[in-house]
Specification:
By secondary structure, the chain is an alpha+beta fold. It has two domains: 1-40, no CATH class; 41-87, no CATH class. The protein is 28% helix and 16% strand. The chain contains two helices and three strands. The protein has a three-stranded antiparallel β-sheet with strand order 1-2-3, with no helix packed on it. A hairpin with a 5-residue loop joins strand 2 (22-27) and strand 3. The longest helix has 18 residues, at 68-85. The chain is extended, with a radius of gyration of 16 Å. It starts with 12 loop residues before the first strand and ends in an 8-residue tail after the last helix. The relative contact order is 0.13.
């Protein structure tokens, strides 16, 4: 799963294909430019895709965090908290 689009902070979407996939352009240190697949699924999309294999789906939409280290710590905390409360057949996404 990828991050979410943040106006003014995210890299602009360059194109969208016939399937709804979105792409961003990235320039490498060697000067070459490449399109990178970047999809930002909505809450409804996630719930729809997981509903046939999971029950009691909980979607947590985290606020945008500039500090990657803090973001990683927060995700680890949420995973640890969820594992203690969720049934053994649950999926953490």
């Amino acid at each position: 799963m990828d991050n979410k689009v943040v106006t003014g902070s995210s890299i602009q979407i360059n194109s969208t294909d016939n399937f709804g996939n979105t792409y961003q352009s990235r320039r490498l240190e060697n000067g070459t430019t490449h399109l990178v697949l970047k999809n930002f699924p909505s809450k409804n999309f996630i719930i729809d895709k997981l509903s046939s294999i999971a029950i009691d789906i909980q979607f947590i939409d985290l606020e945008y965090l500039l500090d990657r280290e803090l973001q990683a710590e927060w995700v680890q905390y949420l995973k640890a908290a969820s594992i203690k409360k969720m049934p053994s057949n649950s999926v953490i996404y």
